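The records we work with from here on pair a chain with its fold. Taken together, the tokens spell out the fold as the letters spell out the chain. To see the layout at work, look at the sequence and tokens printed below.
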Amino acid sequence: MVDNLSYLEESPVAKASEQTHDNDLMISLGSDVAPGGPAKPSPPAVSKDPPGAPVPRPPGRAAAGNVDYFEAFNLIDNLLGNHSFTSSTFLPCSRPQKVCLCPFLPPQPLEVSTCLYVVQHPAEESRVLRTVPLLAACLPLGKCNVIVGRRFNEEKHPELAAVCRDSGTLILYPGPKSQNLEDLVQYQEVGTVKHNVIIIDGTWSQAKNMFLKNSLFHLPKQVQLNRTLSSQYVIRTQPSNICLSTLECAAVALSILERNDEIQEVLLRPLKALCSFQLQHGAQIHHSKEHLLRNGMYDKPMPKNKRKIKRMEKLITDHNICPR
């Protein structure tokens, strides 16, 4: 996301608008530019606030780092007399109006005590059909924190390091050292422990690489999900039938930690709608790699790497998919 809006000054829309709305801009922006003449320098603004005082901002305006970019686009567009960036285009679900998912979001953010930290691989940012934005739209501000990167350390990410060292932090990653999340919380009283949950967002190979190469992720207690749930994210191929999307993992984890199964239903609602919209517009159902291998439907060339072959063989029981 661009950190400022200065690039709009040279856009064709801005140039055309400057020629036809110079007078309006002088009034709206308080400029000393005369029609057809050069700009006169304005006297520097003198602040009456003491040094170090916070800069006041208009009510409803977000602070730096939480900029409402859609509001900023609309403000600039209104000043220029254009209406190309309308509020109907940018909705809370961040999708076009024709495929808006806002009706499937909860009327109010879900009240949860658990705080999620989604550690996202940079490649996920460019994916159109991501599930993390839907997850964030369902939760209160500050309950779904997205941190993008591959490598994390205490110097560059002190806040994440502090979360990893917190005794109440869990990292959701399956493995031989993982404890079933339901077993962990079954003896805890509701509301007595506030957990942080770290979820790695990326492909399975990306998530594995990030987990193994970041020592910070080995500090929290490692947990896994033991519920049998088929993924509803049918527009993206999963390695096996039990693999879930990031949103689905978060939905199951929150329902367990908050002792409220309704949370899972509410969070999965926009995901199901997303898949339904995509299927209606020509997308195809993606079966898991396990399903394709078991049913002889896997039509891609088999890997030559023995380690990859063994990994694929693990997806189907007692069956060699490729001759040695």
